[in-house]
Prior knowledge:
The structure holds two protein chains of two kinds. By secondary structure, chain A is of the alpha/beta class.
Amino acid sequence: MGLFPFIFALIVGLTGPRNVKVLDKPNDDGSAVIIEWDSASVTPAVKMISIYKIPEEMWGHGSIKVVDLLSRNTFRYVDTQVKPGKRYYYYVRFWGEGDYIDSKIVGPVVPKAEWFHKERLPMLVVLLIYGGLLAYFLKRIRKGEEVYIRPIAGLQAIDDAVGRSTEMGQPVLFILGLGYINDIATLAALSILQRVAKKTAEYESELIVPCFDPVVMTAAQEMVRSGCFEAGRPDLYNQKKVFFLTNDQFGYAAGVDGIMMRERPGAIFLMGLFFAESLILAETGHSVGAIQISGTTSITQLPFFIAATDYTLIGEEMYAASAYLSKDLHQLSTIKAEDMMKGIILATITIGVVLETILTLLGKPIPNYIKQFLEGGLWK
Amino acid sequence: MATTIWVWVAAFFTLAILSFLYKDNPFYRIAESVYVGSSAAYMLLFLWSFDVKPKMIDAWVKGSTTDRLILIIPITLSIFMLMRFIPKLRWISRWAIAFTVGMGAGLGVAGLLQGFVVPQIKGTIVPLWIANNFKQTINNWIIVLGTLTTISYFFFSRKHTGVFGKFSRTGVMFIMIAFGATFGFTIMARVSLLIGRLYFLLHDWLGLI
Lengths: 380, 209
């Protein structure tokens, strides 16, 4: 910095940034550097803060402004415009009223990519435990152990709904919602679709599936097709009845509402991911007198389904549907493993809460190791 | 009253869609057909302009050898998907679907664990007694009991009878209270959407307010 701004800054009480530190951001791909400075050095005279960077190859040839005009309440900045393996130097500039003062140049810092994100170790542990439980229960079920699955009203009603629709001579409408193929709720809905397709084929009833996403439509066609094959009626598979409608949320809702009014389905299934159109669809379905079974993992839409449809699969009940309907050994073992995992979660919460309460009552700053583990803090 | 043609067009379609509240009618059918058709066409152009052209064609033409090598994977999967139109090769499209489903499920499980399960457990580990803060103590009891009983409702391989049954039924109560609150909150948001449409009709179109 020039001599004049420095003298001027001293006169108005502006002091330079102290304890400036630069460090490689941990647990990343080497694309970020953290710059920190002492909060106590930010006096009332400081109005704004800027940060400058000097890449190794520019040493002695100026600097790059990383960020301009940070608020005076900022004491830390993450520079994401760096490349792994290169050396960088930084300095911080405090701005007063038209004057400024710089910190010392600090560095070098060399951003490095890490192989492991240590803070995500809890996730790995949970996945390993779950994987182990899955293998264990699969082995037990293969040996012939019986698995009890509690009745789920919405799933038990599927056959009745298709049967009722057939008796009335009306088609069955299956709405897959607005999810994409990588949404787990959509995958669960597809497995329910297969079961519904099998039933409609057995009863020789018509099944209509309007789709929001072309890839989901492709998967839905496969599911309906395999459902018809399972029922021994491949001749009843009609690809034109599983069709793409539109990729617009309310366009889809308008289109499906129109189908409901014209086709007058006897049973409507609303399964998958739904958003603001859920009540529009469910209310229209109700108005045409169809029996409606819904299921979604969208917490904000579940209340509407509960209010407007006859049966609702709440969240994880949808995931259990596949195993419940197919009674497949692999899928049944996932139900057992998931339940055991939930038991472990309940135990973890209970022990954690008891520990936390005791520590609070004692008033001692002893760490709660369970909480620390979940925060990935045991390995910091 | 508005003199711009597009305000009249928008007002017509708004009224046509709202007429569905009475019953299905030709005006609604016109609006529905136009909406579904135009949105599907828009989606096609959108996919071409923002996906296929920049991410596949331009990336292939302008990209380096490495970029092209990476692009071969999605292009191959896209071609697999198009095999659906050739009956004898239709089975190949299942590979593309299997890849997408597997990837989605794998990413979804990790994402759900990281984004919901672990933070929920972490957020539930709270002290059940805080000296001189009765409100927070009650709040913490609700958090802990609500979470534990709600999880117990989602046990599928165990009969919900006896003490466990009562525990899980308490969970159902917590779920329903939460849904009630969500219902009211979302209805408020929907009413604001309706107000927006009515404002358009009364202000932009008729100029009454």
